[in-house]
Each structure stands twice: as C-alpha cells, then as structure tokens.
Amino acid sequence: MSFTIHTRAEQPIAKHFMLMERHLYRREIPSSIQDDMVVWVKKGFGEIYWSDEDIEKLRSQGSMYLNKRERTRILGKYNRIIRDFWIATREILDELEGGVARSRLAFLYDRFCTTLFETFAYFPATTDKMTAAVEEQLRKSCPEGFIAITTPAKPDLLHKELVDWLKVCSNPAEEAIMKHTKKYLLMLPNTYSTAEAIAWARDRLSAKPAAQVQKQIEKNERRHAALQAEQKKIFASNPHSRELAVFLQNVSLLRLELKACWNGECYLMLPLYERIAAIAKSTVCDLNMFYLPREISNLVHNNCIVSPKVIAARKEHYLMRLHGQRIELYYGEKAAGMKKNLRLWENTIISELTGTIANKGIVRGRAKVVKTDNPNAFIEIGKSLHGDEILVAGMTNPAMVVMLEKVKGIVTDEGGATCHAAIISRELGIPCIVGTKHATEWLKDGDLIELDADSGIVRRC
C-alpha cells in the first residue's frame, strides 16, 4: 500500500477519529469510501495520508458532481447541516447556563458529538479530489477565465465578519468582543479559554485601526463588483460554463460556513469542556487535543479517566490508522515503528515542488513556514513579518488574515480551486500555489524561494 500526503495541520484527535469513523458507518456520504488512511501526529502537529487507491476512488466518485441533481443535493445538505449545528449548540449552551447534573452533562456531550460528527463527515465531500472532474471540465471549456469564474463574487463569511468587526472597533467593550467571537468561530481555532479570545481581539484591535478595516471593506466591495462584471462577460461568451462555475463558487462559500461550525468548536463549547476537564483533572486543551470522543463520553458516564501516561505519550506522538474496517491507535515506540513500516513520506532530496495554480504571478521571498493553528500565534507571527515573506502552510486558516495581509505569496500542502488559500490569494492579489503536498516539510523557515504561480512551481533560490 502506498500513501500520499493529504495535508498537515494542528488539529484535535477527535477530528482525526471522526473523519476516519465516517468511512466505517456513513459510507453513503460522498467521499466516505476510503479504506486506508493514516494520521501521524508529533507534538500536536499532524500529517494526514491517504492511500493512492483511495485517491483514485475519490476522483472517480467526484464525477457525480457533473450531474445537476447531485450538485443541488450536496449544497442543500451543507445548508441543513449548518442550520442544525447552530440550533443544537444553542440549545445545549442554553441548558448548561441553568446548571445540569452529571448524568445530563453526559447526554449533552453525546449530543454535541453527534452534531459535530455531521460537520466533519460532510466537509470532505467537496475536497479538491471530489471536485477534480468539475474543475477539469471548466479548465477545458474556459481555460483563460477559470480563476475568475470560480472565485465567489458574493461577499463570503470573512467579509461579513470584517463588516461586523468594524462595529467592534467603534465599541471595543468586552461584551461586544465576546458576542463577536462567539458568532465567528472560524477566527478562533484551538482556543481554550475566554482570556485567549479576549487577548486575540485586543491584539487585533491594536494591530489594525478602524480606518484600515473600513478601507479593506471598501476594497472588497470594489473587487466583488469588478468580479461580477468580469464573470458576466465571460458567461455571455461561454454560457455552458456558468452552472459548473456557480457550483464551485457556492461550494467555496458553504465550505467556509461549514468550517465555521468546527474551526472554533472548543471555544464555543467552553462551558461544556470546562465541566468535563474538571472531572478529568485535565486542562481544556489536553482534553480537546488528546482525548478520543468515546473516552470523554466514558469519563463523564463512568468516571473512567485516561491515564496521564497515555496522554503524555500522545502529546509526544501517536499514529492512527483506518485499515481493515477498523480504526487503530498507537503511541510510544509502537507508533514510531508503524510509521517506519508504512514508509510514509520523508524529507527526501528533490529540486522543486509542483502544485495547482490558484492565482498567477511570480515572486521571490523568504519562506515563513507556519505549523500552528492558534490565532494568538498568528498575531505574534504577523508582528514579525516585514513584507518580504511567502507564507508556507499545510492549509490556510481564516484566522491567518493578520499574516496573509503582510506576505507576498502563499504556498500550501493541500487544496484546489475552491480552498481558502486560493480564494484569499485572489482577494489579496498575490500569487498562490496549492496542493504541493510537501511544502511545509521540504521548505525551512527563512529559505529564499521563488514562487512561480505562472507555471505552478516552487523552487529554492
């Protein structure tokens, strides 16, 4: 069995587990047909590998989106999942406010897991592997206008967040900050306390005054208007490309809305996680990052605490594998041995990286390799940037905007035409190559590199 890297990211063990579990119990969901995948996590930062056989199956299954009925079905499902997530979490939080018994706490956690599972299960249904057939057909039918017609011309969730953030700038009271952060979870991944969220907001307020925020909003609105006019011209001369292009635009918009359900889920559910962490005699961070969902459920139901030695071992490294219709979890020496036996990618000698062109252009600069998904870390990294850097990440995160506005290009391991990195690079007008697979491992922080997004190549200079 041979494996290809899918992405690298700092994500909780629960997400890795649920994304594997869907292939066992929800194979009716588009993209839930994989039989072999591996997650290797070292000090919290993970590498996700998919088997080459599974990738081919996903590409083949993705041709379903050439059918209008299937396109309508998946977009409708995204809308329903987003609606149901916010209804369920609001009900859970309302109940927690009144104080609940231990037995009821267990029920609420199990309900939240069921809700969260749906957001994880459907999100990969529109990865670049699944939309490859649609993208390929559009590239053939409209090669010159491909980037323009696949970029959303409507305001996305990030633009809406910016408009609301301007209101916070004029009223930076703690109450206004809390209301904003709870509404826009996508800005607060891996956030484990109210203090962290407030610190992030205060730093953001000082880093970018209201006048700059207003200018950014106006710039976005001008760009949307210009893009709408450009798309209108392209569709007039190439009407057959319209339906597939609008589908990819809607996929991009809804993926962001769906990501907002889980990108900051721990912060949203702090009242729940804090209660459970107290039972586990653990931090909220450790509970979120290193406890399996079934272990948390067993903890609350039966007071079964995971051994501190096990948690310490997982913090160092662990390997999770979907294989033979089961999920296996290893840590310690056995995990390291499994990684070696599976012959996962190592940093070998290669002369250049290739990937998908998300936004054209050629730039040179110093690689800024980011291996965290913490918004407060993004702000600190942003302060260190001088404008000559090229951001290198497993995938970009909406909370990275404080860094993205200061770099001259973007390179990612993961992604396709509708990923966040692709869309944000077009908004910022900077070159971007996505889906290089190995950028965060092959490149080192400070490397002088050339990002040739006209040819889809990244080289060391």
Features:
13 strands, 21 helices, alpha+beta, Glucose Oxidase, domain 1, 461 residues, globular, eight-stranded mixed beta sheet
Describe the model:
- With 461 residues, the chain is an alpha+beta fold.
- Among the domains are: 114 residues, no CATH class; 109 residues, Glucose Oxidase, domain 1 (3-Layer(bba) Sandwich).
- 55% of the residues lie in helices and 15% in strands.
- The strands form two sheets. The chain has an eight-stranded mixed β-sheet. Strands 1-3-2-4-5 form a five-stranded antiparallel β-sheet, sandwiched between helices.
- Helix 18 links the parallel strand 8 and strand 9.
- The model has no long low-confidence stretch (mean pLDDT 94).
Blueprint of the fold:
Blueprint: E1 3-10, H1 13-25, E2 37-42, E3 45-51, H2 52-61, H3 68-97, H4 102-122, H5 132-141, H6 146-150, H7 157-170, H8 174-183, H9 194-207, H10 210-237, H11 242-262, H12 265-268, H13 270-280, H14 284-290, H15 293-302, H16 308-316, E4 317-323, E5 326-331, H17 333-342, E6 352-354, E7 356-359, E8 362-370, H18 375-384, E9 389-393, H19 401-404, E10 410-412, H20 420-428, E11 432-434, H21 439-442, E12 448-452, E13 457-460
Parallel strand pairs: 8-9, 9-10, 10-11
Antiparallel strand pairs: 1-3, 2-3, 2-4, 4-5, 6-13, 7-11, 8-12, 12-13
Task: Identify low-pLDDT runs.
Answer: none
What is the terminal separation in angstroms? 35 Å
As laid out across the biggest beta sheet, the strand order is 6-13-12-8-9-10-11-7
Assembly status: single chain
Shape: globular
Rounded to an integer, what's the Rg over CA atoms?
Answer: 22 Å
How many strands appear in the DSSP assignment? 13
Largest sheet geometry: 8 strands, mixed
Proportion of residues in extended strands: 15-25%
